[in-house]
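Comment thread on ticket #2218

A.B. wrote:
> Attaching the input chain for the structure job we discussed in standup.
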Amino acid sequence: MEFLVKSARLETLKTATLVVAVGEGRKLGEAAKAIDAAAGGAISALLKRGDLAGKVGQTLLLHSLPNLKAERVLLVGSGKEHVLSDRQFRKMIAAVNGVVKGLGGSDATLALDEVAVKGRDAYGKARLMVETLADGAYVFDRFKSQKAEPKALKKITLLTEKADLAEVERGSLHARAIATGMAFTRDLGNLPPNLCHPSFIAEEAKALAKAHKNLKVEVLDEKKLKELGAGAFLAVAQGSEQPPRMIVLNYQGGKKEDNPFALVGKGITFDTGGISIKPAAGMDEMKYDMCGAASVLGTFRAVLELQLPINLVGLLACAENMPSGGATRPGDIVTTMSGQTVEILNTDAEGRLVLCDTLTYAERFKPQAVIDIATLTGACIVALGSNTSGLMGNNDALVKQILKAGEYADDRAWQLPLFDEYQEQLDSPFADIANIGGPKAGTITAGCFLSRFAKKFHWAHLDIAGTAWVSGGKDKGATGRPVPLLTQFLLDRIK
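C.D. wrote:
> Ran it. Output below, let me know if you need it in another format.
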């Protein structure tokens, strides 16, 4: 989809579909008033018949209005509030998208500049609008013998005032990059596990580096991981025929002397639970257990498209967790790269085992801050549902920065505590630490486990178990979150 930004008079605009807002109570916005006047009051006359109440997201498509060069006019309800919330605005734009992508016209023009959104200027509204439109156009039909019919809609133009052209263009540019990163993340998450295994993800990272000179990729194989002493990481993979990979991405967009930020992604390409095997129902969804790694790759895709002036390291902890005669057993004790020993009480708590060694590896980059992203605990879905990611960390300033970025990106997180009392649940009589802390506060004790390997840098942990994919039924699939949050966090660091 191509997105353009321009300023023009509505009544003289040649377009397949012109979109304008109508408030609740059939109140015409300024754009709607302008085309209503040009069309001799045709819109007012139609609204008096009661066809559109103006509630948020309601639509009414009009054809061949007199004295207009637009072939169609789409009226969209903007509600009764003077200022919309992010959610209301997204609902409105999604409704527009649902109509225009099903029409025969090759372009659409949105004259929605006057719609006010709480806390958002011209840049912020353009970001939300283009992200919603681009993400709404996503299709994954790679394995369908009958592909989706190609849509006629190829171009969307955002109309704005001349004074706001630069900011709307900047918002559109950032949104397109974020949407591209989200699509990349969704593609990886939606791929089947017989194709998307650790070596495949490594090849995807290499392909990304091949296309961008300022990205370097190194792949650490099983032999290298053994040399590093990554006993926890290797324990997860030892039951699978698919070899593990730690994938290191290094983007140099900032000054050479600037320490990088680091993103660490859990990449369990399929999670049976290992010997602590999961129930069969819904196990197909365990292909999404690599969405943390996929979101790091998607964020890198957005950063590379924007060529952000920042230094960034990505560490993807990729393995497959399978049961076999060689698999790790409950009761096994492994030695991590940090030297700490772990008693594995449950082999289905494997994400923290690949992440702990990867966090230790992150120390060598002397990062300004590290954020790990993982579909880590079902307990997070119980606590926060599928709308909000769980957040913990060892640095209050970093946590606040992530919360702020999530709020602005409309990809929110919520902080959970990391009190010392929870650490006691991980005590083991045989090793330094157990890999689970019992049935209580599972998300928090998982964060406590990781915190023991993140003491040498500012660190935050995002549990995206509920937000990384839509579960169950024909609508299941990867969401591309938290690429918007992570990209916004990095955008905020360069201001």
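A.B. wrote:
> Thanks. Noting for the ticket: The chain has a mean pLDDT of 96.
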